[in-house]
Amino acid sequence: MQKASDIYSKDDIDNGFRVFRIDSENENTDIRKPLKDVNQTDLFNSIDNIKKDRTPLDLLFGVIYASALPFDLKLETKKIGDNIVYLYGYLDEDSGLVACFDDNISEDVIKEIAKLKPLTAAFKDSSFQDSAAKINLSEQFRVITPDTKVKVI
Predict the structure, then answer these.
(1) What sign results for the dihedral spanned by CA atoms 61, 73, 94, 85?
(2) Does a structural domain hold residue 78?
(3) CA–CA separation, 78 vs 61, rounded Å?
(4) Which of 12, 26, 73, 101 could be bridged to 56 by S-S, CB 3.0 to 4.6 A?
(5) How far is Cα 78 from Cα 7, in angstroms, rounded to an integer?
(6) For the chain, what is the domain count?
């Protein structure tokens, strides 16, 4: 008879709970200033609205909190193209949250995420090169899975 320690590595064991640390929000709040107080340095520092020390998991659980989802659903990661995609509470199409917070997300990856047909899909604003790429994101979801709620943080 094999012992459980022989079958499963430490990474495979689910301890049954998650531990969170309360922190400030993920968004830079100091980028909002009256126009008369803004200088050139402020403009360069405000390009990304997410704090520099935030990880993709920080962003994911921020979206989970803002969406009023329970914190105890299953979390999986999947590699699509060159990107890491998080599937939270995702069982099959029309369920859960699918998110990708990488710096560059290609159109092919967006299509693959849309084909998963989640209830909610989340991305960060700086993942897209320009406004046209964000419009394309909306169009891809509108065509492939119109019922998915798309969030760009």
Answers:
(1) positive
(2) yes
(3) 17
(4) 101
(5) 23
(6) 1
The whole-angstrom separation of Cα 80 and Cα 100 is: 10
The answer to whether residue 8 sits within a structural domain is no
Say which residues have a Cβ less than 8 Å from residue 110's Cβ, sequence separation at least 6: 136, 137, 140, 141
pLDDT digits (tens, 9 = 90+) for 2-53: 444 444 455 555 566 676 677 767 666 565 667 677 666 655 555 567 777 7
Query: Residue written as tokens 């929000």?
Result: 25
| SS3 label, residue 39 | coil
Rounded to whole angstroms, the Cα distance separating 53 from 24 reads 11
15 domain residue, yes or no:
no
